[in-house]
Design a protein that fits this description.
The complex is a heterodimer of chains A (about 350) and B (about 250). Chain A is about 35% helix and about 15% strand. Chain A is an alpha+beta fold and about 350 residues long. The chains are: A alpha+beta (about 350), B mainly alpha (about 250). At the A-B interface, helix 1, helix 2 and strand 4 of A face helix 6, helix 7, helix 8, helix 10 and helix 11 of B.
């Protein structure tokens, strides 16, 4: 048996780590990112002559939990056609036995990196609304993301906002039109809050992760952190969106503008309501959350916060500042003229 | 639609039975001996080196203990007691080695066992050379954690070395000797100066031929190594974890 030096072992490992694209239409360009489930590479589609992102499972085999999860993620993506969700192109098994899928190659920055370039609160809230739109669309199709966090949002060079990494996605069977298409006997069956079709006798099972807690601390709802898969619904994502919104509003920009901002009470209330520990106290849909944020941006009262008379007046002033100042200037001018003419 | 219906882009990865552990639990003694052979091939060097370093034994003593360990594994049917739900096979074997060496201090037991069991033909001289070939730094493996890492590292080295041997055989069978030479020159012996261009010049072939040959060899090496690994694992979960360890697919 030949002796292998450390260097040879490392070389063999590196060589074996690269996906074997023989027999596919793709040519490997380089590694983009490595995650818990797989590695994302840049590849060229040699038929269409375009760059794609190729996500491949680290370990071989088209069976097993991880392979099932990757295939399922691909199928979820395939049915979520929305400008805020990365489109998928292809799915299959490589010659080396690893499951892969290809998707649009997104050139841009992760939200946690991009945020530094956004100084104003309204600009950040507009980005947040784009995220809400994508998540609301997924919820409307019966899909929960379950891992919403800054690292899973990409912002493209033209300002396009994309929610990525749907590897932990769950399907809300009662509302999902995807259910018959994404056959997954092991998928978690989830309830939709306030759904007329909700049936307390609905069978609840869970497979992905086998009860293990999946998600990111700080962005994971308390029920998700407890591993209480059966009780997860859209409000779990709303909790994550609340944490994400707080991140957006409190993370410093390159010029230090947002870092020192003390959140206005209405914004603080929106964040607090979205990320309330009790799901019943949260917004009941992403649309409600988005609506409240839009109301704030329009200078209207938000549902999450009951204003005092002073706050109401201040908001009124901020909203109509131009007209108020114009009227005040006009009145001051009149006063001045009256006093001047009397003399 | 089931997952299997997804059209594969390339050939399907061959599904291999969990042969070693199945064979180890077989009623057929020849099957059990085959299992021991496979285990021995993959683990004897890590076990030997581990005994030398962890237990600070001289070479003759470590050789005796290594032989004794594998003999005891067969005699006491240690593999039958392995529970994949509790640990990896690799960890189980390491713990068994520790336990065996501790018990072996009772010389009488060793005397009792000696001679009645087959003596394995192991290349201890080669293993000693490797130990002296600057493959490890004894000062860096002082803690139990680093000893475990050391055992893992030696196990991976052993697995890859077996796979390289199999690849050589495959290349010989398929009359692809040049492919193995290229693989050897680039992946096994290559230094920083080695390049596809240089190899192409050396072997008098086109660079694309070098690329294709190395790509084929790596693919086959990977298949062989995974196939061997699969045979040494008790479940799909263990296989996936061990594949991560062996190929450095550490989740980040």
């Amino acid at each position: 048996m030949r002796f292998l030096s450390d260097r040879a072992v490392t070389r063999l490992r590196d060589g074996a780590d690269l996906p074997d694209l023989a027999g596919t239409r793709y040519r490997l360009l380089g590694q983009i990112a490595r995650g818990g489930m797989g590695v994302v590479y840049a590849a060229e589609d040699e038929v269409l002559k375009r760059r794609v992102a190729l996500k491949v499972l680290e370990v071989p085999g088209s069976e097993g939990n991880l392979a099932n999860r990757l295939i399922r993620e691909a199928r979820v993506l395939a049915l979520l056609e929305h400008p805020g969700i990365v489109p998928i192109h292809d799915v299959g098994t490589l010659a080396d036995g690893r499951v892969f899928y290809t998707m649009k190659f997104v050139q841009g920055q992760r939200l946690d990196q991009y945020i530094a370039s956004l100084a104003s609160i309204p600009d950040r809230l507009r980005v947040f609304l784009r995220i809400c739109e994508a998540v609301a669309f997924a919820h409307a199709r019966g899909v929960l993301h379950r891992d919403l966090k800054p690292a899973n949002v990409m912002v493209g060079p033209f300002g396009e906002v994309l929610v990525v990494d749907w590897g932990l996605a769950k399907i809300l069977w009662q509302t999902s039109k995807l259910a018959p298409q994404i056959e997954d006997p092991g998928a978690t069956v989830l309830h939709v809050p306030n759904s007329s079709s909700r049936d307390d006798s609905t069978e609840v099972s869970e497979v992905t992760g086998h009860g293990t807690v999946m998600g990111t601390p700080g962005y994971m709802s308390p029920e998700q952190a407890r591993g209480d898969v059966a009780s997860l619904d859209a409000r779990s994502d709303i909790f994550s969106l609340g944490a994400l919104m707080r991140f957006l509003l409190t993370t410093g920009s390159t010029d230090g503008a947002a870092a020192s901002v003390r959140l206005e009470r209405s914004l603080e209330s929106i964040c607090a309501k979205a990320a309330a520990a009790d799901p019943a106290a949260r917004y009941q849909s992403v649309s409600d959350l988005g609506l409240d944020v839009s109301r704030y941006l329009d200078g209207l009262a938000v549902a999450a916060h009951r204003e005092s008379l002073l706050e109401k007046s201040l908001r009124f002033y901020r909203r109509y500042r131009f007209f108020i100042l114009l009227i005040l200037a006009y009145l001051a001018m009149r006063m001045f003229l009256l006093i001047f003419l009397k003399r | 639609m089931t997952f299997d219906e997804i059209h594969p882009a390339g050939a399907r990865f061959p599904v291999t039975r969990w042969s070693v552990l199945e064979a180890a639990r077989s009623n057929d003694s020849s099957e059990r001996a085959r299992a021991l052979d496979s285990l021995c091939a993959a683990y004897w060097k890590p076990v030997y080196k581990y005994i030398r370093l962890r237990w600070n034994r001289l070479a003759p003593d470590a050789q005796d203990l290594t032989q004794g360990f594998f003999a005891e594994m067969l005699e006491r049917e240690l593999l039958n007691r392995f529970d994949p739900a509790k640990s990896r096979l690799r960890t189980y074997l390491r713990v068994c080695v520790d336990s065996f060496v501790m018990n072996e201090d009772k010389a009488a037991r060793r005397q009792k066992r000696g001679g009645s069991l087959p003596h394995l033909a192991l290349d201890f001289a080669g293993a000693e050379q490797e130990l002296g070939a600057a493959t490890l730094d004894p000062s860096s493996i002082a803690s139990p954690d680093s000893l475990e890492e050391f055992f893992e590292k030696e196990w991976i080295r052993s697995l890859f070395a077996l796979a390289v041997g199999d690849l050589r055989t495959l290349c010989d069978e398929k009359s692809r000797e040049r492919t193995f030479k290229l693989f050897e020159a680039y992946d096994l012996d290559g230094d920083d100066g080695v390049s596809y261009d240089r190899l192409a010049e050396e072997f008098g072939i086109a660079v694309t031929d070098v690329t294709n040959a190395l790509s084929w060899a790596r693919r086959e090496f990977r298949k062989i190594a995974l196939d061997r690994l699969r045979q040494l694992c008790a479940s799909d979960d263990e296989f996936q974890r061990e594949a991560k360890a062996a190929f450095g697919w550490h989740a980040m």
